Amino acid sequence: MSDFPLSAGGARRPLSGPRRALTAGALGVLGVVTALAATLPANAAASTLGAAAAQSGRYFGTAIAAGHLNDSTYVATWDREFNSVTAENEMKWGPIEPSRNSFNWSQADQIVNHAVGQGMKVRGHTLVWHAQLPSWINSGMSASDLRSAMTNHITQVMNHYKGKVFAWDVVNEAFNDGGAVGTLRDSIFTQKLGNGFIEEAFRAARAADPNVKLCYNDYNIDDANANKTRGVYNMVKDFKARGVPIDCVGLQSHFGNPPSNYQQNIAQFAALGVDVQITELDVGGSGSTQADAYRRVTQACMAVSRCTGITVWGITDKYSWRSGDTPLLFDGNYNKKQAYNSVLDALNAATPNTSPSPSATPTRSPSASPSASPSASPTRSPLPGGCSATIKTINSWGGGFQSEVTVQAGSSAVNGWTVKWTWPGGQSISSLWNGRQSVSGSSVTVTNESYNGSIAAGGSTTFGFTANGTAATPTATCTSP
Ligand code: G2I
Q1: What is the pLDDT of residue 210?
Q2: CA-closest candidate to residue 10, choices 255, 231, 324
Q3: What is the pLDDT of residue 80?
Q4: How many CB atoms lie within 10 A of CB 287?
Q5: Could you tell me the CA-to-CA distances from 311 to 81, 349, 393 in Å, in that order?
Q6: Which residues of 175-290 form beta strands (DSSP E)?
Q7: CB of 252 closer than 6 A to ligand 1?
Q8: Half-sphere exposure (CA, 13 Å, Cβ side) for 81?
Q9: Which of 24, 40, 277, 317 fits a 20 to 30 Å CA distance from 172?
Q10: Averages of pLDDT over each 10 residues, the chain, 481 residues
């Protein structure tokens, strides 16, 4: 299957415009800038995209690829123009967890650390997606194994970026392009976990971090009336009605022209009580046609208070995933295109009454409030040659909690471990990862998986679970054969 979803977006994918049209457009830029400058409000003279967006409380971001960070003009343009970033590929499941429960943070960290150093926001992209999966996720897995892998992935990645990422694309591109309203794309997730995998992923994400915005992100959901849009709309409405945590919808917006009802579409999602973010904007074309499309997209977002920010899918046409369409705001030589000026102008023209307001902060479902103070069971010193286990509460909410258990080897390496504890008050595990559980009444026994049984002398590994009931940290014992 192609990784590139615009085979579907192809219906609206336009305009592999000839380069000479772009050049003509670029030559016209000076005149346009002069004409527009005269119409700018006196108080709105920001000269970069990020600063202009910030005037109405919004962000303007770009996708960044770690592989281009050695291009100094790329980095300089990023720093100058943008106040938010999305890693183009580096946080996807395959790149970041290439082997099970072993994470390669380095490339994503490079992007995040640079952004944080510059005071930028960071969007997390993406936790659960059918594409760019690691090869160890495969059809040989059982449903419970895939569920454990998914929960662990969500938990570990969100924990790593806690406090740095403000919004996560929890699930990406789960809906079908054709067919009846509400049909999901066939994937390993639907095959093993059924349609409920989306809800499971959002619940696991909220348990991992109650303070980050959780988004559903997709392409071709820009037209207010399209079947695909209706499917996502119905899902968000249902999630809101049932208290499934969701805070935002991402409209990727890879297109040639925004649909005429694009603003209405943003407004209809916002009316469900979620933020809307334009997450991967790129508009094929050139010159004034492209500039006009970009202007209409920006104006549509500025017109809806819950449209909180825009991210373009790259800085320069030369590195775009669809570079033949010249879809970005800077040409291959980092010159500002006509589209750049139309976006800057539309950002500067945003009126304060459309600013995202505090009342737009999503309300959390009651089940999502974090515990005031995480607690841990007493640490026991490992016996020489043996192991010890400590249970720590990571999160708790009305009726449930999430824990992490650290298994530590003593002065000798451990090859296989078993952790046991007894629940004090009727708690029960709903999902456990990185271990195999067996339960007998209130007694729980967890043994290692094949991939995490060996612990070096003095080293440790962790497993985790979510459970029903009041958070508890019983004393656990650990034995190794
Ligand atoms: O396809 C456009 C976007 C649609 N929405 C989700 C986004 O995550 C997606 O981004 C694109 C990246 O822009 C591409 O850069 O996702 C593609 C993969 O589905 C990315 O392409 C991959 C290539 O397929 C790999 O061969 C390559 O190793 O980029 C990788 C890194 O350059």
Answers
A1: 95
A2: 255
A3: 98
A4: 21
A5: 12, 18, 35
A6: 213-218, 248-251, 254-255, 275-283
A7: yes
A8: 27
A9: 317
A10: 32 31 35 40 77 96 98 98 98 98 98 98 98 96 96 97 98 94 96 97 97 98 96 97 97 96 96 97 98 98 97 98 97 98 97 64 36 49 75 80 88 93 93 86 92 87 87 94 87
Residue 88 near ligand 1, beta carbon < 6 Å: yes
SS3 265: helix
Which residue(s) pair with 376 in the sheet? 392
Q: pLDDT value at position 220?
A: 97
Confidence (pLDDT) at 20: 31
Q: How far is CA 23 from CA 19, 177, 331, 338, 363, in A?
A: 6, 35, 10, 10, 48
Distance 267 CA to ligand 1 centre (A): 29
Question: Where do we find the tokens 């790593």?
Answer: 160
- Cis ω on the peptide bond leading into residue 126 (within 30° of 0)? yes
- Count other Cβ atoms within 10 Å, centred on residue 70: 8
Residue 290 has a pLDDT of 98
Cα atoms found within 13 Å of the Cα of residue 397, Cβ hemisphere only: 19
CA angle (308 as vertex; 303, 309 as ends), nearest 5: 100
- The pLDDT score that the predictor gives to residue 44 is 53
Helix (H, G, I), strand (E, B) or coil at 422: strand
- 81 flagged as catalytic: no
Rounded Cα gap, residues 63 and 191, in angstroms = 31
Closest CA to 315 of 65, 32, 12: 65
- State the closest ligand 1 atom to the C-alpha of 67, by its place in the atom list counted from 1: 32
> In 173-306, where do the E strands start and end?
213-218, 248-251, 254-255, 275-283
Q: Catalytic residue at 404? A: no
- In the prediction, which pLDDT does 464 show? 87
Q: Look up residue 23 and give its two tokens.
A: 């050049």
Q: In angstroms, rounded to a whole number, what is the distance separating the alpha carbons of residues 339 and 25? A: 9
Tokens matching residue 459: 């080293």
